[in-house]
Amino acid sequence: MSSILTNNSAMVALQTLKGINASLSKTQNEISTGKSVATARDNASIWAISKVMESDVKGFKAISESLSLGQSTVAVARNASETVTDLLTDIKSKVVAAQEENVDRAKIQTDIVALRDQINSIVGAAQFNGLNLLKGTEDVNVLSSLDRASDGTVTASNITVNRQDLTTTAGVYGTGTSLSANATASAAAVVNTANSETRTIATDTDVSADAFSVTIAGSTVSFAAGDLTGDQDAAALAINNAINGLGLSGVTASVSTNVITISSTRAFEDVSLASLKNGAATGVTLSATEIGERAENVSFSTSATVNDGDGYQVTVGSSTYTYVAGPNENFEDVARGLKSAVDAGGLVDITTAVAQDGSGAWQLKVDNDGASLAFSVVGAAGGVASGGLFGLGGIDVTTNSGADAALGNIETLIDTAIDASASFGSDQGRIDTQTDFVSKLMDSLKSGIGSLVDADMEEASARLQALQVQQQLGIQSLSIANQAPQSVLSLFR
């Protein structure tokens, strides 16, 4: 049936043409934008995912800039700390040269002061964009990543760069919690007194048939049977004279009847003792198997910890010497810091050393070769840390004692600078690795976003041509359908 009111063929052709035009418009949009999903209308879920990933890419671009800034800052600090290490090594060579007595120590000291000033200049200038990692103790965080969890929450990750204070500042002693229980002085005074032990020869009316030997610090005096005549007192006197005849540094002997008293003024050194009569220890009474070192000490706790700002003060005579610990330090660092402080004080007849006792406790040892001086130690929290090269300014090789002290102290300072350089090198390596990873991650994210929303241009081109042909056919079909009612007019002619 034909109708001039309803043209079903035209309606079908028109709907088909509309569909073709819609597909053609979408394809043209893909070609012009390069995206198959350009708006949320195209595909809401894919569009949302792509926008989240695009925001992550922008975030990682900012992170890449942060890493570049951190990389440059750490590189400056590493180069500076390595230069400081080299200069400290130069100072060490000057200190070693000063160990000889027939050199011009004043000129050597002038060179050391110049090198020290150069170190201070380098430390002060080692900044990038105003940030100096060679001053202070607060750590610096470099933004390194944005971590997105499965629930969509985002957290920032950082690479923590530890500051390495290479200044020579003395620090500020705190007024916080008392730490005096962590340090114990062995005596209330440092005195110039020899330590002694005795050897008692048992009563024997005739020692001519006896053999004796006494070993002191590895040196032995011996008397075979028949070498001695008389009683135990004569044997004691002969042994006493033989000991003094060894000429051992700091070791002397005295005798009273049958008792030999062996004394030592050796600082920081125990003197071993052994005695035999006729090949056995019987017949010779030993008060001890060694003479203890001549030195007083400050012993630090083996269980307590050292925190940033913990300070300790040692009083020797009327002078007080302070060291305030920085982060990640221990009681060895405290003992060595106090040693540097005491050495820099230039006390006549006072020498120092650092060692561990049998229980593992670190000790600051102080020896006095002059008049008795008061000796004590206290501690308190809440201070400002001393610089990592604290004690450098106190190096003075113009005297024998100063040159001796400087040799040990400069080694500690070199170790500090080496540790700082190694720490910065490790941090720079981490930042380099993270920078490379972030660059590759951004490439991967961009590639992922592209696979989600980018148009397949080959496919779109082929589809465009097909749709253009379909559009032409649709127009032709609609034209034919619109002409169909015209044929009805012929029936009325």
Structure description:
The structure is a single chain. By secondary structure, the protein is of the alpha+beta class. The chain folds into four domains: 8-34 and 455-492; 46-160 and 417-446, f41 fragment of flagellin, N-terminal domain; 170-190 and 300-386, no CATH class; 195-291, Immunoglobulin-like. 43% of the residues lie in helices and 22% in strands. It is built from seven helices and 20 strands. The chain has helices at 8-33, 44-97, 105-125, 232-245, 331-344, 400-453, 457-483, and strands spanning 127-128, 131-132, 140-148, 154-161, 183-185, 189-190, 195-201, 212-216, 219-223, 251-256, 259-264, 271-277, 284-286, 290-291, 296-300, 311-316, 319-324, 350-356, 362-368, 373-380. The chain has a four-stranded antiparallel beta sheet with strand order 5-15-19-18, with helices on one face. The protein starts with 7 loop residues before the first helix and ends in a 10-residue tail after the last helix.
